[in-house]
Amino acid sequence: MRHLTTLLLTAALCVVSVVSAPGPAHAYRNVRPGATPDRVAVISDSYTNGTNFGGQGPRSWTAQAGRNLDAWGVPITADVAAEGRAGYVERGDHGSIFRDLTARAVRPDDALVVFFGSRNDQGVDLMQLSGMAHDAFAQARATAPGAKLLVIGPPWPTADVPTQVLQIRDVLAMQAGMTGATFVDPIAERWFVDRPDLIASDGVHPTDAGHDYLAGLIAPRIKSELPTR
Length: 229
Hints:
Elements: E1 26-30, E2 38-44, H1 61-71, E3 76-82, H2 98-105, E4 112-116, H3 126-143, E5 148-152, H4 163-179, E6 182-184, H5 208-225
């Protein structure tokens, strides 16, 4: 679950390859003629970078979600900052945590900021995790005061979820609630459970089919958080 990349969105949003270069988040447009796009920022880990197992470029869940949103008449311009091995506390392949990625991706005119993950924070001090999640959310709020926040907890591909991952989920749910963010719980919703065909042979990363599955789950959540047209 730990690789890197600061990626972007081809028609909307972009999960980790084995390696990529650090840098600012990149923006992509998905706009219908005459429509004003909403700005969206995405902060995540290798589930939003694409790996050698799947989800690279146009096959990433973010790119596919963007195409879904465009088809629904919800054009967006999105900046995606995702780094393998990164979490709210755990530093990624290039030394970033989610707070750093927030500074890279979020802009003052964003309509929505999406945080997704991270199982990489397994084993960290829970008080520290709580504080660092608070800081990342607060930074997003300060940079984009008009934006909504959508916090997606870490998914787990089986029903046998480690206690540490459940603890991460609970801390993020608490901080999301305190920040006024919408929280999505992939564990309670059983994302990937009983779908081994969607997870690669490493038992961690989504395949191309897994990214398509993620796009189908996340795009409607993004749509519901954006201003009504």
